[in-house]
Design a protein that fits this description.
Number of helices: 2
Distance between the termini: 58 Å
Number of strands: 37
Helix content: under 10%
Length: about 550
């Protein structure tokens, strides 16, 4: 019999107020524990000023609004766990520039299931006389810092159940449906999509929306914003996107793409129309039905993204397995494509122009022919490649799309990403990926957000594609040329963030909970197991 193992994840996300003379670290901790067992964590507290600080630490249940603002929960909140935690020490005095560890002990009940949440709070007391002795036994709250504490059990009955709700779309800043004709015009617009979690554990989501006209033209593709993307169990979180482009009276389709931290994806199609400036959702008409039918993928590849090694002068056969998902016979027309990845990480396709100096499409020997798929059946399409007998170093790229013959090809072309088989060739003559970072800029966020936005361009100047994973650490200058780490690291990129040779990716990272002062940023990017990481230090002032 298998022993059930429950995994507890404790996230401590730093929320530091500007008045706090004591900082908390690390910003995140992850713990695993068996059911009914005890585990501990430690939080490091540092007095950054020349005055002593009287500190009291405690736990408090929390909840989060639909817009992501945390607030203290009342006693009826079913997902709090303050009663499971003891802190030692819970009250003490920190001398100037001294530090102290606080140990939290968590006793988790055997029947705990799913996710639970708390604030880890710190109050600073200010003594009322010069000797630091309070004869009345009281202290006045001087400042406060806190962390969010997320505990998650993992087991057979633990899951998040994510669903999307009614689409809300407005002229930017209006947040209300209005009646004026063509009220959107060419002005910015805002989308709000409430996401429900009907499960018992939280989920972390990120993704984007695309807005399409009835003629199949993509008006815009925008990233969804929701802070860290947390959706708590039994709660709703508003995911928002702001876009530009003409939203005049007419019929539209919004496609939703969300990726969960457990690897699952959520996709939805939301048709809407604008009539006399008013948004009407889920209207059924020929235009909407046409674009929905054209956007639906009726077949799949067993492996839509292939990496294949080759030797110059070699002939290769590339089998492509295609499965008909529908109950109709499908006729698919193949079409060679050039492809690349733009600055925002989106796939870019082209048919008649060369967008990469590393295209392998000219190596294809055989003529393209239609594919006929019987209902619910699979077939194998074969491409023949004749590799030139040249000095080919690094990576080369090829792609072939399959267009349903009974659909409007002009509309289908705009949904190529789900119908295209992409091939990455790797030469036996090794190439290298080489990362360079340029145009780093750091700007303050609005005062209420207490942070900064770091923008940069990551360039691959090598002959080989790579996947990048970046990390930003922020340190505050507490004395001339003496720096102290603040909170946890901020990450960007990931194992699916591909950068092709001779291309550039733009990244923007929001760093929260820092205020005015002198800082330095430590930037580390991992991009190739055979190469050293990219590392850069940049000083800045907010």
């Amino acid at each position: 019999m298998k022993t059930l193992f429950t995994s507890f994840t404790l996230f401590l996300l730093l929320v530091q107020l500007s008045l706090s003379q004591v900082t908390l670290s690390p910003g995140k901790q992850e713990l695993d524990v068996h059911p009914g067992r005890m585990t501990t964590f430690q939080t490091h507290m540092m007095n950054r000023e020349s005055e002593p600080a009287h500190v009291r630490v405690f736990m408090q249940d929390l909840d989060i609004t639909e817009d992501g603002s945390p607030f203290p929960a009342d006693s009826s909140f079913e997902r709090g766990f303050t009663d499971w935690v003891t802190l030692e020490p819970s009250e003490f005095t920190l001398d100037p520039f001294q530090s102290q560890y606080v140990t939290g002990t968590i006793n988790v009940p055997r029947d705990a299931e799913g996710s639970y949440y708390c604030f880890f709070k710190m109050d600073l007391g200010q003594q009322r006389d010069k000797q630091g002795v309070n004869t009345e036994g009281e202290f006045v709250i001087g400042s406060q810092a806190a962390t969010f504490v997320f505990i998650t059990t993992r087991g057979r009955n633990v899951k998040s159940i994510i669903t999307s709700d009614t689409l809300l779309i407005y002229p930017y800043g209006k947040n209300t449906n209005v009646q004026n004709i063509n009220v959107f015009n060419d002005n910015p617009w805002e989308v709000i999509i409430p996401i429900h979690n009907d499960g018992n554990t939280h989920s972390v989501l990120q993704g984007n929306i695309s807005v399409w006209s009835a003629s199949g033209v993509r008006i815009g593709q925008e990233q969804l914003q929701a802070g860290g993307g947390y959706v708590l169990p039994g709660r709703t979180r508003n995911f928002k996107a702001t876009g530009n482009g003409p939203l005049r009276d007419g019929n539209y389709l919004l496609t939703l793409n969300l990726h969960r931290n457990d690897g699952h994806s959520i996709n939805d199609r939301m048709p809407f129309s604008i009539v006399d400036g008013e948004v009407n959702q889920y209207d059924s008409n020929d235009d909407i039905d046409n674009i929905i039918n054209s956007s639906v993928q009726r077949f799949s590849f067993s492996k839509p993204f292939t990496d294949r090694k080759f030797v110059p002068g070699q002939n290769l056969i590339m089998p492509i397995n295609i499965h008909n998902l529908s109950t109709d016979t499908l006729t698919l027309e193949p079409m060679l494509l050039e492809w690349s990845i733009d600055r925002l990480g989106n796939l870019v396709f082209a048919t008649n122009k060369k967008i990469s100096d590393r295209s392998a499409n000219l190596w294809i020997m055989n003529d393209l022919h239609d594919v006929i798929l019987s209902p619910k059946q699979a077939s194998t399409y074969k491409l023949s490649y004749s590799i030139p007998d040249d000095t080919l170093k690094g990576n080369y790229y090829s792609a072939i799309a399959f267009i349903p013959a009974d659909r409007d090809s002009a509309i289908v072309y705009n949904f190529l990403s789900t119908r295209t088989y992409m091939i990455l060739f790797e030469s036996s003559i090794p190439g290298v990926s080489k990362i360079d970072v340029s145009n780093i800029s750091i700007h303050s966020l609005p005062d209420e957000q207490q942070g900064c936005e770091i923008k940069m361009e990551v360039n691959n100047i090598g002959e080989k594609h790579c996947y990048i994973e970046g990390k930003i650490s922020i340190e505050e200058e507490i004395d001339p040329e003496i720096y102290q780490p603040l909170g946890s690291d901020d990450s960007f990129g990931g194992k699916d963030e591909l950068i092709l040779p001779n291309t550039t990716r733009a990244f923007a990272v929001n760093v929260s909970n820092i205020t005015s002062g002198n800082y330095r940023m430590l930037l580390t990017i991992s991009y190739d197991s055979d190469e050293e990481n990219y590392f850069e230090v940049k000083k800045f002032t907010l």
